[in-house]
């Protein structure tokens, strides 16, 4: 069975009021364990509404949703178990840091699980290491004394300390400088590759999507309008443009080169691939 299974998932905010808004309509989607899926779409297309269903912050107003075997259309679903399995990292998660030390902040979730302090300590050390923060150097510091990128990594460690099977991230690199961005994205990639974590990533950055994910789901007006391998999606530059979405900078460059007559492969998403495609087109091999 798929880890996440939505069938005709619909969500209507403020149903029956003058402010009623249909945020998701007939979303059918399944995600298997171990996948790395990007979710893109214009502002207001339903991305954040969708991901909040995956850990039951929102419930379907129509259709079916099962996450990790738990039926979320059932009002009596076991939400506590679900929230241990699905970690949701909001935009700017560092705004939710609040404890006096980095250690205590990461320990907050495991302590709520009533684990003993040795187990809590194990989880804190393990999750800080996963995001590249040295527990010995940083554990006793105030989270508010860290850099923006470090704070964000500590906040993500707090979610990882619950040992989730699925990590859902909303714009994890937003607002960081290029180095902070690269570090955080590298760590997310490593979590997927080394820990086998299933990752869902909402992003506005097509470059980020091209570098990280294998599959892309495109939302528009609350519906899934494209779903497939990242390369196939980025071949549809015109369809994406019609939704107000771009393609990765490298793919855009390749399109322009083709427009000026250089027969480079259109299926090019990374700098290395672009180098090879240009050499090939110029017959430099
Ligand atoms: P995205 O994350 O893609 O920007 P959202 O899921 O935030 O999209 O929003 C989808 C639609 O639902 C939008 O039309 C938005 O105005 C509406 N919406 C989002 N949150 C609420 C809310 N709490 N109450 C009413 N309408 C909302």
TrEMBL record:
Residues 4-246 form the ABC transporter domain. Keywords: ATP-binding, Cell membrane, Membrane, Nucleotide-binding, Translocase, Transport. Coiled coil: none annotated. It is an enzyme of class 7 (translocase). GO terms for cellular component: ATP-binding cassette (ABC) transporter complex. It is found in: Cell membrane. GO terms for molecular function: ATP binding; ATP hydrolysis activity; ATPase-coupled transmembrane transporter activity. It comes from the Bacteria. The keyword ATP-binding applies. Its main location: membrane. Its EC number is 7.-.-.-. It is a peripheral membrane protein. Forms a stable energy-coupling factor (ECF) transporter complex composed of 2 membrane-embedded substrate-binding proteins (S component), 2 ATP-binding proteins (A component) and 2 transmembrane proteins (T component). ATP-binding (A) component of a common energy-coupling factor (ECF) ABC-transporter complex. Belongs to the ABC transporter superfamily. Energy-coupling factor EcfA family. This is Energy-coupling factor transporter ATP-binding protein EcfA2. The lineage of its organism: Bacteria, Bacillati, Candidatus Sysuimicrobiota, Candidatus Sysuimicrobiia, Candidatus Sysuimicrobiales.
């Amino acid at each position: 069975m798929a880890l996440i299974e939505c069938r005709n998932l619909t969500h209507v905010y403020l149903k029956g009021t003058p402010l009623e808004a249909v945020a998701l309509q007939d979303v059918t989607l399944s995600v298997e364990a171990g996948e790395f899926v990007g979710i893109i779409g214009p502002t207001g297309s339903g991305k954040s509404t969708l991901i909040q269903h995956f850990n039951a912050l929102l419930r379907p107003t129509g259709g079916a949703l099962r996450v990790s075997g738990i039926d979320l259309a059932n009002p009596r679903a076991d939400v506590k178990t679900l929230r241990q399995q699905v970690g949701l990292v909001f935009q700017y998660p560092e705004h939710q840091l609040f404890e006096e030390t980095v250690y205590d902040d990461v320990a907050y979730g495991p302590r709520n699980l009533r684990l003993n302090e040795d187990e809590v300590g194990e989880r804190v050390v393990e999750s800080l290491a996963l995001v590249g923060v040295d527990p010995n150097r940083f554990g006793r510091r105030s989270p508010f004394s860290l850099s923006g990128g470090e704070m964000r990594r500590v906040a993500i460690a707090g979610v990882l300390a619950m040992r989730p099977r699925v990590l859902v991230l909303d714009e994890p690199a937003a607002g960081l400088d290029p180095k902070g961005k690269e570090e955080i994205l590298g760590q997310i990639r490593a979590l997927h590759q080394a820990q086998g974590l299933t990752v869902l990533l909402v992003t506005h950055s097509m470059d980020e999507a091209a570098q990280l994910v294998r599959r892309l789901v495109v939302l528009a007006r609350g519906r899934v309008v494209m779903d497939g391998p990242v390369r196939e999606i980025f071949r549809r530059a015109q369809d994406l443009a019609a939704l107000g979405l771009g393609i990765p900078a490298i793919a855009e460059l390749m399109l322009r080169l083709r427009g000026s007559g250089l027969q480079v492969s259109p299926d090019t998403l990374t700098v290395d691939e672009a180098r090879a495609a240009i050499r090939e087109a110029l017959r430099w091999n």
